[in-house]
Predict the 3D structure of the following.
Amino acid sequence: MPRLNLTTGGESHGPGLTAILTGFPAGLRLDPEFIRTEMRRRQHGYGRGQRMKIEVDDAQIRGGVRNGETLGSPIVLWVVNRDYKNWEPMMSPVETVPHRAEQRRVHTPRPGHADLAGGLKYGRHDLRDILERASARESAARVAAGAFAKLLLAQLGVEIKSGVRSLGPIGVDSPVPDWAQLQTVDEESPLRAINPSLEAEMVALVDRAKEEGDTLGGAVTVIAHNVPPGLGSHVQWNEKLDGRLARAVMSVPAVKAVEIGAALSAAAGFGSAAHDPIERKDGEWHRPSNHAGGLEGGITNGADVVITAYKKPISTLRKGMPTVDLDTMEPVTSRYERSDVTALPAAGVIAESMVALVLADAVLEKFGGDSMAQLLAHFAASMAQQRDWPASAGK
Ligand code: EPS
């Protein structure tokens, strides 16, 4: 991200998680209740494990904010792991624990998790040293930072929402949703399904997977509404906003594919069906469809930015998977470490946060400013110029 930078730190069962967000302008008034709600939204969802009953995630602000307003200095956030007390002293960063090596040491790498690749890379004796950081718990820190990005974007009128489009095989043929459909997603429903008529079937499938010791993935769609045209650029590969968004959304734990707009169906048909006609209505640019998902040439075109993330099933299965025991080098079944059956609704909230961070970064890149007042003034001037285009371009 050229303007913002987010670094997170912390292990799943360590004392807590830190997020440090730099490049954020001064003068944004915070809404603590909104930040809290975002953290709770990430914890919600049918199919989560016992951990979410232990944690009550909250982002404590440790820097970069004074009396409820950002200062322009690094925003420092701290999310406590309540579960840490159950893992002390084994997960203590400072205490030396006798026989630490034998305490819940992990030596059967789980297929699909970072265990084997991370163990090979970092040369650790205990795969817990890998899995503690690879755990999706880290995403709590991203959602905390993402709430700041969402609050910034809200000042420009940009809103972001998500919903579960499919779970396992249920809903795989659902069409790409639009903003109006996402507005109807019931935040309190078990799986935040976009099509509520699929919800009961989805819940039953989660129950079945749980009974069988298995896990599930699926697809979540995120839409950013009222995005100003002109974010990102066509001029250089790494400035294209579709690529920047795809990278950020792909980094959400277990996401293995990212689709912009209706890319999958577009790729299977003719160009005449894929592209969105250009119309001029009442002095405004109008597109009767949005197959492009709000991005053309790597630049936002004013339509809603639509991104679908495809998440593989969680890689910790109660029934285990074939693997090799690192102590004996013999084939065994992977050991079970408490986990979720599915975390799809949470993935939607994390993906929203990543989209918010990338869009906030692109907004700051285009409109600039060290304070919200400067940013909003530059934004208003730029939008006025765009409204008059092409006349404003002269001859
Ligand atoms: C998570 C916390 C973790 C997991 C989950 C996400 O808690 P624990 O490992 O203590 O049960 O529930 O992580 C994974 C599914 C994973 O594969 O890493 C959280 O806070 O989101």
